[in-house]
Write the structure tokens for this entry.
Amino acid sequence: MTASSARREAGAKAPHTAAPGGRGRWIDEWDPEDPGFWARTGARVARRNLLFSVLSEHIGFSVWTLWSVLVLFMGPEYGVDPAGKFALASVATLVGGVVRVPYTFAVARFGGRNWTVVSAGLLLLPTAAALAAMRPGTPYGVLLLCAALSGLGGGNFASSMANINAFFPQHRKGWALGVNAGGGNIGVPVVQLLALAVIGAGGGPRLLLALYLPLIVLAAVLAARRMDNLTGVRGDTRAVRQAARDPHTWTMAFLYVGTFGSFIGYSFAFGLVLQTQFGRTPLQAAAVTFLGPLLGSLARPVGGRLADRYGGARVTQANFTAMAAATALVALASVRASLPLFTAAFIALFLLSGLGNGSTYKMIPAVFGAEAESRGLDGEAAAAWTRRMSGAAMGLTGAVGALGGLGVNLALRQSYDTAGTGTAAFLGFLVFYAACYGVTRAVYLRGAPARRARPVPSGTTTAPRQHG
């Protein structure tokens, strides 16, 4: 028996062996690319960790986007104009993007399970702060601080994706990452649906916030009891520094600005746009705003599946074409003041952003898999290098992508402040999607590595031979 096969057999028989010191739930041996290990033990453990990762990330997204619905409760008695409300959404988006970088390091430093417990518990801080502050007469600076604290929920995505990426084999990453991210993204429409129910029942924003406090505690407790840490991921902060020096990390971050930046930016802005430009009441706006994020969240695993089958770059390129077309319809509806067309086109844009989220994130492990191959690595060595680098790159890409949401809100704020309409901002978004299309085509479909690109077969257990 070789050393490698011995390690695999050990991992299959004892997946919960403790790391030196015996602290927490640690798995010392983990080789998801070995079909035998995956069938006997790996799949069950990976799916269990995925389930509770989704729960924590889901609540994190809800807390992050709380202010997309709290602003709907803020009538004239709060003394905050539309520009001030866009600023609240912007600061929440900004902090959510920035904290994704240290959250990515935290997985390697503390372990995925351990950091999930901590990051879930931290959500109590912005929720309790907003619960205390949401009342007329609260100074605007305090509201800004509370919105900034809600950005902690945005960091959960980066740590969750980096953690789950290490649990699954290459040919299952598109599905697993799509489910993990999609389940988290659904936290956006869920908090908006709850807000709709609260508004419809005549309740106030503090009732909505109070509902989340026990859910946060539940997520932290379940993560502590049911999730695991991977010893092989712990202490690997060097991978983040390596990923930061790789040009592909920043190319993928640019594309992710176009997909996830759109999703999160529009999630914060949609209700405000309906109120500001089309005169919708809070109840009328809340009755519509959840549809876009819901469809976008559900579409994310579909985008990952399509990327698994056809290649991430091909799906992403087609998706940016469709996003540009949908944005053109949104701009046309804005000019004509057509609420039905505007709503339908905006919801379609959400759906497409979700598909693109899944296909773009699937590209990341494929890109680094091809890079591992170009370095002369193969088999288990290539798979291990790909897991390290793609997990690190996902955190950095997620951080930059979230900052794209800040750009969306700032552009809309400026457009409404100067022209009273969002048309100029929408035209700017259209141009950006065209640029994303061009980058995808030039770097991942027309370059020399892309000419040998093929979709990853469902049974593949080594690094993929593709860039997309």
Residues 1-24, 448-468 have pLDDT under 50 and may be disordered.
